[in-house]
Amino acid sequence: MKREVAIIGYGALKIGKYPEKSDNELAIESIRLSLEDSGVPKDDVDGLFTTPNYLDRMGLQLSTIAEYMRVSPKSMAEISCGGTAAGLTIKYAMNEILLGNIDIAVCYGTETRRSMIEGYYKGKITNMFEPTTQPHISGGTIWAYACSARRYMHEYHAKEEHFAMAAVRDREAATKNPYAYFRTPITVDDVLNSTILCTPIKLLDSSAARDGAAAVVLASKDKARRFSDAPVYLRAVGEHHDNSLFVPTDRRDKSISSFTATKEAAKDAFKMAKCKSNDIDIAEIYAPFSPQELIIPEDLGFFTRGGMIKAIQDGSTEIGGEIPINTDGGLLSRGHPAMITPFYESISIIRQLRGEAGKNQVEGAEIGLMHCEGGMLNNCMVFIFQRG
Amino acid sequence: MEKRNFRHPQIFHSTEKFWLGLRDRKFLVQRCKNCEEIFFPPRSHCPKCLYNEMDWVELSGKGTLYSWSEIHIPSRNFDVPYVIGIIDLEEGVGRMVSKIRARVEDLRIDMPMKIDYEDAEEDLTLYVWMPAQS
C-alpha cells in the first residue's frame, strides 16, 4: 500500500502576550494540546521537528524539549529558512514518514517578543539585505512590500481602498475567531486613516508580531486510521525560490507586482495533488501586509492578474464566496508570530476541514490550500490538504 | 542628536572597488572575465557562471523609477519621512534600491532618473537617485 501522511492533531495557544512564560513552557503546552487532540500517547512520537528559536544559540532546543517531556525520537531537526521554517518542518516530517523512517511526528514552534528582540532583531535585521541596499534602509522589511504595493497599483490601477478592504475582511473573520488577537471590528476608513508606516502601507494594513506556540501531529496512514476519526491528508507540497533577495536586483524581467516563487510552488503543488485552483475550497495565504492579500491569490491562480481588485469588492474571498481566504483573520488580524505563522495557517485549514471552525465554517470544505513565504515572497511553499 | 541618515554597509575585499568608485563619483559594476556577464550588485563570484575574476566597467548612472515608498516609521538612524526607491538601470543589468532625492508629488512610476553622490563620512560615499529632469 502506498504510504500517505495525515495530520491527526493540533494544539495552539491563543496568539497574545506571554511574558511570564518561558519559550519551552509555551512549546510544551502546545505539544500537550496537540497530543491530546490526536489521542497519541507521547511515547509513540518518533519524530520531533521545530522552527528556530534564536534564544537558544547552541541549537539544543529539541534536546531541551525531548528531556522535558521524556521522549526519545529517532528523527529530529530544527529547521531554519526564514518565514517558511514551520512549513519546512511539516514537509520534513512528511518525507520522513513517506520514507518509512518514522510513523508519528510532532512539528512545533514558539515565537515570542523575547525571541524576536533578543534573538534576531538585535542588529541582525538589516544584514538580511544585500550590502548595497543596507545603507538606505530603516524600519525592517515593510519598504519592500510597500514598493510591491505601489507597483501593483501602477500596473492594475488598484487603490489604497482596495488594500484596506482586505484588512477589513481579515478583521471581520477575526472577530469570530477566539484564537485571533485583533478582534475589534474596523472599517475601510479606519484603515485609510491609520498611521502611515511606508506609503501606501498604513498601520492597519500591517500584521503585528505577537507571542504564540503551536504544534501539529503527523502520522502515516496506518497510524492515522488507528488514532483519528478525522484525519486531514497532506496531498501535496510545492516549493520554489525565485533567486532574489527581497527586491529582484539582478534582472528587470522579474516582478514585484506578482511573485514567481508563489506561482511555481502552486504549479508544483497542483500537479502533485492532481487538482486545479478551482478545486480548492479554502485558502490560507501568508500576506504580512494588505496589498499582498490581493497579489498572492492571483499568483495562486484563483484570479486573473489584477482580478483581485474586483474580487475584494464583491466578496469572492469572504466566507460564502467563491474562494474564502484567511477565514480566521490572516496574519493581519490573527496576529503574526512570524516564525510559526504557517502552523497557525495549517491549523486554520485543519479546523475548517474537520468542521470545527465555528462561526467561520465554510460549509462542505474538503480541500484546503496553505501558502507561506520567506524574504519578500522569494521562497514560497504551497500545501494542499484534503479531508480524509 | 543629529541623525546619520545612513547605515554603514558590509564591505568586503571583493566589493571594495565599488565603494571606492562612489568616492570618485563613478558608478562601477563588474564584468565577468570568463562569460562577460555584466552584473550588479558587486560580489566575489559571477552569478551566471560562478567564475571569480572580474573587470570593472562604468555605467551611465541613468535609469527609471520601478517603484518607491515614503518611509515614515520613526528611526534612531534616519530622519523621517524619506523616500526609498527601486531603480531599473538603463543598461539593463538589473535593479538597485536607493534613497531618492525628490518631492513625492514629483514622482511617477517609470520616470527617468539619474544618480548623484553624497559623502556620508570621510571614507564612505553613497549614491542617491533623483528625477532626471531636476
Automatic annotation (TrEMBL), chain A:
<dbReference type="GO" id="GO:0016747">
    <property type="term" value="F:acyltransferase activity, transferring groups other than amino-acyl groups"/>
</dbReference>
<dbReference type="GO" id="GO:0008299">
    <property type="term" value="P:isoprenoid biosynthetic process"/>
</dbReference>
<protein>
    <submittedName>
        <fullName>Thiolase family protein</fullName>
    </submittedName>
</protein>
<keyword id="KW-0414">Isoprene biosynthesis</keyword>
<dbReference type="Pfam" id="PF22691">
    <property type="entry name" value="Thiolase_C_1"/>
</dbReference>
<dbReference type="InterPro" id="IPR016039">
    <property type="entry name" value="Thiolase-like"/>
</dbReference>
<dbReference type="InterPro" id="IPR002155">
    <property type="entry name" value="Thiolase"/>
</dbReference>
<feature type="domain" description="Thiolase C-terminal">
    <location>
        <begin position="255"/>
        <end position="387"/>
    </location>
</feature>
<dbReference type="InterPro" id="IPR055140">
    <property type="entry name" value="Thiolase_C_2"/>
</dbReference>
TrEMBL record, chain B:
<dbReference type="InterPro" id="IPR022002">
    <property type="entry name" value="ChsH2_Znr"/>
</dbReference>
<feature type="domain" description="ChsH2 rubredoxin-like zinc ribbon">
    <location>
        <begin position="21"/>
        <end position="49"/>
    </location>
</feature>
<dbReference type="Pfam" id="PF01796">
    <property type="entry name" value="OB_ChsH2_C"/>
</dbReference>
<feature type="domain" description="ChsH2 C-terminal OB-fold">
    <location>
        <begin position="56"/>
        <end position="116"/>
    </location>
</feature>
<dbReference type="Pfam" id="PF12172">
    <property type="entry name" value="zf-ChsH2"/>
</dbReference>
<dbReference type="InterPro" id="IPR052513">
    <property type="entry name" value="Thioester_dehydratase-like"/>
</dbReference>
<dbReference type="InterPro" id="IPR002878">
    <property type="entry name" value="ChsH2_C"/>
</dbReference>
<dbReference type="InterPro" id="IPR012340">
    <property type="entry name" value="NA-bd_OB-fold"/>
</dbReference>
<protein>
    <submittedName>
        <fullName>Zn-ribbon domain-containing OB-fold protein</fullName>
    </submittedName>
</protein>
